[in-house]
Design brief:
single chain, globular, mainly alpha
Length: 53
């Protein structure tokens, strides 16, 4: 999973669109931990709330 392109894209979506919800679907289960790490890290901490279902 490309870390920088994902971070840039999510940041741009959050900044420009200000969505109430943003659905991100991963193609493989092993990507979930990395996605969670990125979205809980610097720049996104407090800006997103993660749900799994």
């Amino acid at each position: 999973m490309g870390q920088l392109p994902l971070r840039v894209t999510v940041a741009r979506l959050l900044r420009q669109s200000r969505p109430a919800r943003l659905w991100i679907e991963v193609s493989a289960a092993q990507h979930v931990a990395e996605l969670r790490r990125q979205l809980n890290g610097p720049g996104f901490a407090g800006a997103v709330k993660l749900y799994e279902g």
